[in-house]
Structure formats: structure tokens, C-alpha cells
Amino acid sequence: MLAGAAVLLILLLIAVTTTNQAWPAFSELGADYFLGTERIPSEGLYGILPLVFGTVLVSLLAVLFAVPVSIGIALFITELAHRRVRGSITLVIDLLAAVPSVVFGLWAFYELIPVFHSVFNSIADAVSGIPVLNTLFGQSSGFSFMSAAVILGLMIIPIITSVTREVFLTVPVNDKSGALALGATRWEMIKGVVIPHSSGCLTGAVMLGLGRAMGETVAVALVIGASPQISANLFGKGETMPGQILRSLSEAGGLYRSALIGLGVCLFVLTVLINMSARRMVVLVDRRIKGTA
């Protein structure tokens, strides 16, 4: 009880102290801070919508990349791989989860940005005459929303895979054996037994990965381009809330510093809402699968 109360107390202190330091920006800028689409600190414009847009977009793209790969790896480990191979793959996944984010960022900055530049521009040239697609996939310098999403997707794959693997291991062996005995193929057994049994916790794993992605800082800051904007071009430069704090907090003062701390408050609230949504979604999915709702 003491440990649980200490965690709640720490969270409360974080919320109170950061909100107190960010209050000058909240009170002075008002709605322009939360709803503003322009962020030019030198001109007194501190709108956070471009940063919220970049954070959410990159995180969602990263989850779209990571979830199918993570589920595929988890299914291979639990349903197909030999025991020795299973142990090796599990070890590699756990080691990837322990790699510092700055390592991913530096690798991407020095090795992948030229590759992204070439590949993204090739895609942009290929779709240049197709409406909508030519807006989504425009010209790129290599630093972009998509670059950050790819790196972020690689970073959250180990987390989602580890949780998903443990969930799949909880599926009763008798249920799987029964499905196979009734003539189901292995794929039909996975679709009819493994996935439905695990769907609630799979939802939680995905939301956990999303929350992890939204708070990532260094790796994303190195490859996204540091250009706060709301743009439909996924290959264009952008910025995220953590990245903006990282770049500017050490040199900021006065109202600008309060505005940056306010970004931290907004990010804190956003991640709390995601975690609460994850818990709610897990409950709803479990009820629906069990036929109680």
C-alpha cells in the first residue's frame, strides 16, 4: 500500500510542479497556446498544434509498422519455431529492447537518412501524377515524419513482441489441440483460438507501444527535421513535443521556458489518457469476446 501510494504521490507532484511552472504560458497565451497553428518563438507565437500533430502522426505510423511485425514474430516464436530457435529469437528481441534510443537515432542519422532520401524521392516521383498520393508522398530531404516513424517502429517492436508473446503463451494447450483435432489447419487454429483468446491483451500491448512511442525523444529528434508544421506530406519535415523540449529547454527563459514546460504537461496528460483508454479498451474487448457485452 505504501509503495502504491508513493507512486501516486510522485505522479501528483510531477503534475503539480510542472503545471505551476507552465502556468504563466497557459494564463498569458490562453487558447492561442493550445489551438495555435504557428510556432515562431522569436515572434511570440507558441502554438502547440503542429507539435501535437507531429507527435500523434509519428506515433500512429510507428504502431502501424510495428504491430503486424510484432504479432508475426510472437506467433512464430510460440507456434512454429523449434525450442532452440525460439530461445535465440527471444534473446535477440530482449536485447533490442535494451538498446538505448540514442543508438537507434545515431544509426538512423548517419546510415539511414541517405537511404530514406533516395527511397522517398523515388516513391514521390512514381506517384507525382496521382491525386491524393502526390500530396501524401511528396519530395523529401530524408528528414521526415516517415523517417521518424520507421525508426520508432523498430524501437517499439521488442516491447509489443514481448508482451504479445507472453499473452500467446497463456492460451490453453487443450483449446489449440482440440481445434487441430477437429480438422482445423494451423492458421485456422490461430485465427479461431489464439487470436480471440488474446485479443484483449493484444489491445493493451498495442496501446502500450503507442504510449511508449509518444514519449520517445532523442531518436525521433535526430531524424524528423525540426520543422513544426501541419502537413499532409508524410515525407516532409516535422517536429514532436518531446523533440521540441529537448532542443530548446536548456537555452529558453521566461515565457518561452514556461511554454516548453507546458508541452511536457500536455504530453503527460496525453499519455495518461492513452493508458486509461488502453485499460478501458482491454475490458471492452474482453467482454465482447466472452459475449458479456
Write structural notes for this entry.
With 293 residues, the protein is mainly α. It is 76% helix and 1% strand. It contains twelve helices and two strands. Strands 1-2 form a two-stranded antiparallel sheet. The longest helix has 37 residues. The protein is globular, with a radius of gyration of 22 Å. The chain starts with a helix and ends with a helix.
Keywords:
mainly alpha; 293 residues; two-stranded antiparallel sheet; 12 helices
Give me a quick take on this structure.
By secondary structure, the chain is mostly helical. It is 76% helix and 1% strand.
Mean pLDDT: 87
Largest sheet: 2 strands, antiparallel
Would you identify the regions where 5 or more consecutive residues have pLDDT less than 50? none
H/E series, N to C? Answer: HHEEHHHHHHHHHH
Which helices and strands, and how do they pair?
Layout: H1 2-29, H2 31-35, E1 39-40, E2 45-46, H3 49-80, H4 83-98, H5 101-126, H6 133-136, H7 145-168, H8 173-181, H9 186-214, H10 218-223, H11 241-248, H12 254-290
Antiparallel strand pairs: 1-2
Helix pairs in contact: 1-12, 3-7, 3-9, 4-7, 7-9, 8-9, 9-12, 11-12
